Amino acid sequence: MKKKQWIAFACAMALGVTSLAGCGKSEENTQKKAVGEAEGTAKEDLPLSKYPETVTVHLGGSMNSNAKIPDGMSYDDNSYTRLLKEDLNIEVAYDWVASSTDYDEKMNLCIGSNTIPELMNVNATQYRALLKYDMIQPLDQYFDDYASDALKAYVESGGEELKKCISNDKGEIMAIPAPSMMGGEVNEMWIRQDWLDNLGLEVPRTWDEMAAVAEAFVTQDPDGNGEADTIGILGPSNSDHMNAIGANQFGLDPLFSSFQSYPQYWLQDEDGTVEYGSIQPETREALEKISKLYTNKLIDPEMLVRSDSKEPLLSGKVGIFFGPWWSGYTVSDTTLAGEADWRAYFTPLSEDGNYYAHMPNPTSKYVVASKSCKNPEAAFKIVNYLIKNEQQWVVDGITSTEMGTADFYPLYNGYDNADEIEVSTETLEKYLAGEITMDDVDFSKHKLLKNDMEAVKELKKEPYDDFSLDKWNLDSDIAKTNLPRLVSLLVGGSPLVNDKYVPVYNAYNGQTKTMEAKWANLKKMEEETFSKIIMGKADISEFDTFVENWKNQGGDQILKEINDELSK
């Protein structure tokens, strides 16, 4: 199935912002009065209004076994639960508390036995199951009145793709999502600019240019130590993945995407039929070309063998690796030491000149309410309260190393704009260019941006659009704490803002009946086959055998189940 360009661009159109406030029911439904709400409460006050009488909500708890509980407090009686009681008159009661490593298993058991809590955090698979078995109630009748402006902005930033994730087939909103930062899992090519300069090379953009630069990095002693000890393109370690859905640092996803190959993604064809990306002809072509890079020793010879890919990277032996914008944190030690000048680009481009990026799921974290929950609006209030106060709690000392919100706050998720990275990067660029001042920025919607803007003027030397190592104030007292993020944003975030890419989305995020029994084996077979082909332990014809086996051993049935489900 040749992926048509219009499909990918249709995905790009889905990035347009859609107001969810207008996607719910009629005005009479959005004005549905919550049980226990005070009479006469103004609509604008509803998101954080205090109940006149205590409302108790039942949750399932996820407890970090390493978290330290201050004296006089407990998981279910702490600073955050007390504040919720004091300010909103919400009493949090945990039906059960599981360790964070066992939470999903416990929640799965509750779903299977229909004993779910009133309000709960669930992952994408659990959410789909709850929808399938009609165990949760619509929230769209509460969204308009009870979602704060900040929460609405976060949800709306995810656009149409996020809306589809949280809506049922009737168009009803079924969950409060924590939007994924969509640029946060777009892999880029990170490359040593100082090595390019040492060898007099230009930044590669195409496959052939990238291969030529990688060969030079391997054969022409770019670090000048007189030894043949450099790696052209770093690969995944034995604990990493060749491909992955979402973030996959050190994986080779951009090499596949340049052939419009998207392993592990479910792709929707022109007629709406869903196919599996790993078994398409484009993936065969990508594997064959990547295998040639490996055979020619342009990719790390110890790929999938070494225990930690960061070891050669941080020891200065790597010229190219693939990773998201936040990879600036990964290489921060070498940056701070002035030893490596890393830059980020969308490379390699496809033959049509586009950079194709497989996107993360618009959200993987859902807050939902059971059918029996009498106060589903309380979920909105709990989330609104977190969003409003999370930063101030740090300033006030309520949130500390012992009392982190992620460990103790009920229904905790991290809430941010889906385009937070792009907005932050562009704001910093305009600020450095003198196009805006700090007075032009609404920091209430951006948790870290104020600190970023204060730090960047101290750490960045002129010219402000030159990110060479000598254009950073590496000796500043705040370099260690602030520079890794600023490099990540201004270097790693630059392609997201200043270049174009075509987003490709995963068309299915659920789990069918056959997947429950056979997916683990199918995935293992895929990973082993791909590794053997790339590393020269199997001929490319092995791909054809893999496709046939995949189909016969459950793949065809899974595809049928997915298409049947999506066609309903």
UniProtKB/TrEMBL annotation:
Instruction: Kindly give the SUPFAM superfamilies that the UniProt entry links to this protein.
Output: Periplasmic binding protein-like II
Does the entry feature the keyword Lipoprotein, yes or no?
A: yes
* Statement: the UniProt record of this protein carries the keyword DNA repair: no
Where does the UniProt annotation place the signal sequence? Answer: 1-21
Q: What are the protein's UniProt keywords?
A: Cell membrane, Lipoprotein, Membrane, Palmitate, Signal
User: Which Pfam families does UniProt cross-reference here?
Assistant: SBP_bac_1
Report which superkingdom the organism of origin falls in.
Bacteria
Query: What InterPro entries does the database record attribute to this sequence?
Result: Bact_solute-bd_prot1, SBP
Q: Which CDD domains match?
A: PBP2_AlgQ_like_1
Read off the PANTHER family from this record: ARABINOSE-BINDING PROTEIN-RELATED, POLYGALACTURONAN_RHAMNOGALACTURONAN-BINDING PROTEIN YTCQ
Spell out the protein name for this chain: Extracellular solute-binding protein
- What organism does the record attribute this protein to? Agathobacter rectalis
